[in-house]
Amino acid sequence: MKIFCLLLVSVSLQAQPPVLLRDDFSSNKDGWWWTGKGENYSIRLERGKYIITTLQKDKGRYITISPFIDGKKDFSIEATFVQKSGTDNNGYGFMWGDNTNGKYHDFTIASTGYFRILSPEKREKLNEWIVTDKVKPLGGENRLKIEQRKARLYFYINSQLVLDVPTLPLYGTRLGFITHTNMVLEIDDFILRHDMKINLPPNLATGFVKENLGPHVNSPYDDLGPIITADGRTIYFGRENSPENMGGKNDGEDIYVTTSTDGVTWSKSKNLGPPINNTETNNMAAVSADNNMLMFCRSDGFQVRRRTKDGWSEPEYLNVRFKNEVKTMEANLSTDGKAIVFTAKLSQNLFYNPADDVREKDIYVTLQDGKGNWGAPVNLGSHINTAGDELSPFLAADGRTLYFASNGRPGYGSYDIYMSKRTGNSWTEWTEPVNLGPEINTNSFDAYYTISAAADYAIMVSDRNSHGASDLVRIKLPEAIKPDPVVLLMGRTLNAKTRQPVSADIYFEDLTARKEIGEAISDPKTGSYRIALTKGKNYGIRAEAKGYLSVNENFELASVTEYKEINKDLLLVPIVVGETIMLNNVFFQQGRPVLKSESFPELDRLVEIMRDNPTVKIELGGHTDNVGNKDALRILSENRVKAVKDYLVLKGISKDRVAGKGYGGDVPVVPNTNEANRQRNRRVEFKIVKK
Questions:
Q1: Is-cis flag, bond preceding 275, omega within 30?
Q2: Who's near 674: CB < 8 A, 6+ residues apart?
Q3: Does the 9-194 domain belong in CATH 3.40.50.10330?
Q4: Are 49 and 141 contacting, i.e. CB atoms less than 8 angstroms apart?
Q5: Residues near 520 by Cβ (< 8 Å), separated by ≥ 6?
Q6: In CATH, which of 3.40.50.1820, 3.40.30.10, 3.60.140.10, 3.30.1330.60 is domain 575-691?
Q7: What is the DSSP string of 371-439?
Q8: Cβ(515)–Cβ(539) below 8 Å
Q9: Which CATH number does the domain 211-481 belong to among 2.115.10.20, 3.40.50.2300, 2.40.50.100, 3.20.20.150?
Q10: Which element (helix H / strand E) includes 305?
Q11: Per-residue model confidence as pLDDT tens digits over 384-420
Q12: In 560-661, where does DSSP find H-type helix?
């Protein structure tokens, strides 16, 4: 070794950044540091020490965590090292800045009395061993510290400054411990300080624990990318390099599924098999709220498969295409089926530079119009996107709360998960994102977060205390990071006459705005469907199938304050003479035969039905409850029938095809014993009198 002497300077008192991480290694309950063994090493926690044992001369080991480090701000790392045995003429200490290209710096000492700053940077006094009398020999405690302050790096051994240099570039966010040869190294009292402020939600509760979903779900291999259905009863996820994959253990990733009846106990996960999986890497992006459509990311767009009676359909591209500058992307489908949020590097990226090599991704949205066409990608803007990478966007069932991962904001790890809420009707107006806190985020990589419509638990990935590699876990959500409550409407689409399942398209609309706002499909075998409805709207819901007339349902959700599930079958009436269909979404002013505007979507569809079936004739029937004068009620019902007929005629339907009669309160469908029943009896319906 070349020997150089440096003047040692005592540490001056400096204002220190706040502590970001501190570990005395009394336990590994937070799972910050990896433990295990390999062919020539073992790493364990014992007696309040982190112990690295390497067995082969000149072949060491490094162990890292990945906290968020802003290279432009002050930070420091320090720990106490004791070399207990082994070769003493080689280095141990800190390493930091590692990236996928293997570029990093290290600050190491040798028990024989040397230190070195190893770096890809070619500068004076770097990359050479320097003699010092401040290193304690084999068996002695050595406190090492690296401090970045005002664009310079300071290196300390046992509280003495031994070198300072201009700031070195950060190649990545990983930092940790390194040995360069065989030894037993004990580490204690690790402290990371950083001059930054993490934006946390106000009143964020603590005390929540990540619960492993268990060996029925997880495997010894990497289980990744969970996607939970709106009802919280099915999870799709990827599994890498498992011998059960279609291509065996060398296959990149297959999609697996697990189900539950209570959200706590999960079935043994199983490979979805063909056609979803093949011998290549299979990467599912989203599942529709009804669980009857799967969406996949492709390099230039999105493909979907729809559930059929015989399995899954062949993949078909959605009609939105773009050129992604990076190979990977993630996406999520909104519960109304009208929006896709996704990550990509496009020319519209806020910090795009085609000449650089930065794999920076932004979050975009594409929206479906009333004709089923998907619009050009829209960047969500600077409230969401940063100069770093954004990953794994997830739009909650309320359609307004966005969860996403980023390495461009102050956080606990290399990537943290954040939450923001859309404040207006556009997709570029968002609240300032908040970090989900240290019980969800770690000092490593956190992303791929999903919640059901109930939003009671989040499902995510963790490699801490796992059954092998990365596992699926769940964590209860504190109120501060929950989305707005929704109603999950569930049921079946049925033939009104036979009560047998009918495969149908389902549409829901905002009756006040007179606008269709979402769609779904029912299971072709069972007729089951699920729709998530947000609060504050008056909804009309209908199922459509060829050869049937739909019975439209009405749901007023102005006063929803908490998550709720409603079971409601949607009926389809065969177009047969004598069949009667209720017009549930026809509304009148109180006590008057004047149609409200919320009635127009329902009546417009009746117009469409009669245009599509030009030989059909109908008879309208008007009904009231029994509260009031019997003759007055009959006259009111007759006038309301006339109002409906006039509307149909105004829209071009021949008056000869529409008869009508007012029945007053003479034909109730339920007893008029309470207000809910009386409301059901106040109705307009039509009967097919000629097909």
A1: yes
A2: none
A3: no
A4: no
A5: 288, 289, 290, 292, 337, 505, 506, 508, 529, 530, 531
A6: 3.30.1330.60
A7: TSPBPPPEE--TTT--SS-EEEEEE-TTSSEEEEEESSS--SSSBEEEEEEB-SSSSS-BPPPEE--TT
A8: no
A9: 2.115.10.20
A10: strand 301-308
A11: 999 889 999 999 999 999 999 999 899 988 899 999 9
A12: 600-612, 630-650
Q: Amino acid identity of 110?
A: A
Residues 6+ apart with CB under 8 A from 410: 68, 70, 196, 197, 198, 199, 435
Residue that is written with structure tokens 């699920």 in the block: 530
Residues of the chain with CATH 3.30.1330.60: 575-691
User: What type of residue sits at position 304?
Assistant: V
Sign of torsion over alpha carbons 90, 92, 97, 98? positive
Q: What is the pLDDT of residue 2?
A: 34
Q: What is the pLDDT of residues 126-181, one digit of tens each?
A: 999 999 999 999 999 999 999 999 999 999 999 999 999 999 998 888 899 999 99
Which residues partner with 81 through β-bridges?
142, 187
Q: Could you please state the CATH topology (level 3) that the domain comprising 485-574 is classified under.
A: Immunoglobulin-like (2.60.40)
Rg (CA), the chain: 32
- Number of helices followed by number of strands (H, E) in the chain: 3, 50
